[in-house]
Amino acid sequence: MNKSKGTILVVDDTPANVRFLVGTLTENGYTVRPAIDSQSALVGALAEPPDLILLDIQMPNMNGYEVCSKLKASPTTRHIPVIFISALSEVLDKVKAFGVGGVDYITKPFQLEEVLARVETHLAIQYLQKSLLQKNEELAQTNHELINTLQQLKTTQEELIQKEKMAALGQLVAGIAHEINTPLGAIRSSVGNISESLNQTLEQLPTLFQSLSLEQAQDFLALLQRSLQSQLTLSTKEERRLKRALKNQLESEEIKNADILADALVDMGIYNEVDAFLPLLKRPDSSHILEIAYNLSGIQKGATTINTATERASKVVFALKTYARYDQSGEMIPANLSEGINTVLTLYQNQLKKGIEVKRNYTELPPVLCYPDELNQVWTNLIHNALQAMDYRGTLTIEVMQQEQYASISITDTGAGIPEEIKPKIFEPFFTTKPPGEGSGLGLDIVKKIIKKHQGKIEVESIPGQTKFIVSLPIANS
């Protein structure tokens, strides 16, 4: 059974009109529900909201304007697009229809192609609106998770390890905020563009389709479909080359405003095989037609941007949530060491972008029986110290491998190195070479205690330009 293209409620007190619309729309893949009076239309719409409503104006007891007003007053049906169908053709009638919430107006007698084109257009816009709302809900859920994660962090201050963890997070707050705010900015921008495009195109689409012939309307929809399917990202140099070539082609066809049209077409991802669209481009109002198509395709591209930005924000939130989780059971559990290291690196992403090249040399290890939250504190301290030692410019190399019955994790930086005379002191409590206020001197002491708790060991090798901390953890009993 073919999937329905959408559910449409047809409301008209003339049985012949209802039969015509039901038959036409059903043949074209839509699920159609008829209603022959205002009351049954309201009851049906509220009980089982359709995707779109075709509504007659002149009906007994309650006219179409009143029905539309009641639909728009209900939270259940206010978002359903209503297309008025009427023999009334005066401008004031149409103005009143749009004033009560209608999105379009079709004058009787019906033209089959016009009905189908307008129904398809408004269902497409409705789908894009629903997609946008869904993306907004996903963003709200992401923000909710972030708030819960940050609240969870506040409960980890009871132990010294957790206090150090909070101190490290304090240094990361600006970077984490940047990593969250960047996709949020992209989402806000895309939502604004989508809203603006919708406002413009909703007003212009009815007039546009009335001015186009059937063939031109099909060309317009084909042009829009080509743009929606285009996903190729062009460099600035490639864009300029394609625009020049397309401009020359349009000028050879004696098309006015060739440079403006070429810019718009390439921006929409259409730069070859444009012969089919030449009749459309030769119209005097071709620039206006392209602007409407550009706005519609921009809605889809905006939704894609929102999806990408949401995924990016979710990745940071997931890393923060993983890092913040504190297991109070007091029992060791099997864990993937590489995943823990990657979680810490994700949180440091903003600092890494300043000028750090990260090299990850991971070999596959079996899960290691450990306290994952405490090991995350180890990786946090070692990575943070390495970044500071390089002044956030250099190469950070992380290696994970198995050596006999141990998991070996080494973190190497290209900083100035540790002088021989202070190397024996670096694991002592409260010893620090950092300026006052930047370090407590407890970081490496905590690291050593955590590793000892895991029956492992930590070693350091340092020469100018290469400092390596090597952590060895037993995996024999994992």
From TrEMBL:
Positions carrying 4-aspartylphosphate: 56
Entries under InterPro entries matching the protein: CheY-like_superfamily (IPR011006), HATPase_C_sf (IPR036890), HATPase_dom (IPR003594), His_kinase_dom (IPR005467), HisK_dim/P_dom (IPR003661), HisK_dim/P_sf (IPR036097), Sig_transdc_His_kin-like_C (IPR004358), Sig_transdc_resp-reg_receiver (IPR001789)
Coiled-coil segments on the chain, per record: 136-163, 236-263
Enzyme Commission number(s) of this protein: 2.7.13.3
Reaction equation(s) it catalyzes: ATP + protein L-histidine = ADP + protein N-phospho-L-histidine
Annotated source species: Allocoleopsis franciscana PCC 7113
Cross-referenced PANTHER family: PEROXIDE STRESS-ACTIVATED HISTIDINE KINASE MAK3, SENSOR HISTIDINE KINASE
Broadest EC class assigned to this enzyme: transferase
Keywords: ATP-binding, Coiled coil, Kinase, Nucleotide-binding, Phosphoprotein, Transferase, Two-component regulatory system
UniProt domain Response regulatory: residue ranges: 7-123
GO function terms (MF aspect): ATP binding; phosphorelay sensor kinase activity
Histidine kinase domain boundaries: 175-477
The protein's name: histidine kinase
